[in-house]
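Reviewers of the previous submission asked for a worked example of the structure-prediction workflow described in the proposal, so we include one complete record here. The input consisted solely of the amino acid sequence. No template or homolog information was supplied to the procedure at any stage.
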Amino acid sequence: MLPKGLGFWIVKALKAYKDKLYLIEEQDKYRLQEHKLAKAQEEQREIYACQRTSKSMHH
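From that input alone, the workflow returned the following structure tokens.
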């Protein structure tokens, strides 16, 4: 038999571990979204720059 309280601590530790894994997953998702957003902004900037240079070439 486990001493009283030890099972409680094991459950507590497991829950904390699961929560931590969940948090890490959420952070990864967030980072991925941030990365996608940054990439999209970068692409838009490039498109904008291309449009601007093509306009200035016409003038």
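The mean pLDDT is 90. We consider this example representative of the routine output the project will generate in years two and three.
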